[in-house]
Amino acid sequence: MKKIYKISLSLIILVGIIAISLPSLLTLAGLHPKFNGDTFNLDGKRALIIATNHGVLNKPGETSGKPTGLFLSELSIPYYDFKKSNIQVEIASIKGGNIPLEPLPYFIETEEDKNFFLNIVKHAEFEEIKDAAHMVAGDKNNAFQATIYSFLHKHN
Question: In total, how many domains does the chain have?
Fold first, then answer.
C-alpha cells in the first residue's frame, strides 16, 4: 500500500512540475515566441480580426455539448502586432455578438492577453486569494471571505 501511495504522490508531483513549467517549455518550443524584429508604420491602414461565435462543441442540429471558444492569445497577439504598426483594428465575430473564450482554466497566458484584458476592463483590480480551490454551491468559502472583506473595505 505504501508503494502505491509513493507512486501516486510521485506522479502528482511530476504533473505539478510539468504544469508549472509548461508555459516556458512551450515558448522554448516556438509557441508564442517573443518577436523582437522590425515594426512597420502602416498608418492609415485598417485590419479586421474575425473571431468565432462557436461556444459549444456539438454535432449539427444539437444544442448541447462541451463548452469551447477562442484562446485569448489567438486574438490579443495579432491585435497588438497590428497596433504596433499603427493599424486601426476592428474586432468582429462571424455572426455578430459575443466571442466566447475557451472555458478551460488554462494557465498559458501571454503579456498580450493581460494587456488586452486590462485595456478593455480598465477598472479591473486583482486580488490574490491564498488557499483558493475549486468550489461548488454549499462549500465553505473562508478562503474568499477575508479577501472580499479587504477589497470592500478598500473601496468604502
Answer: 3
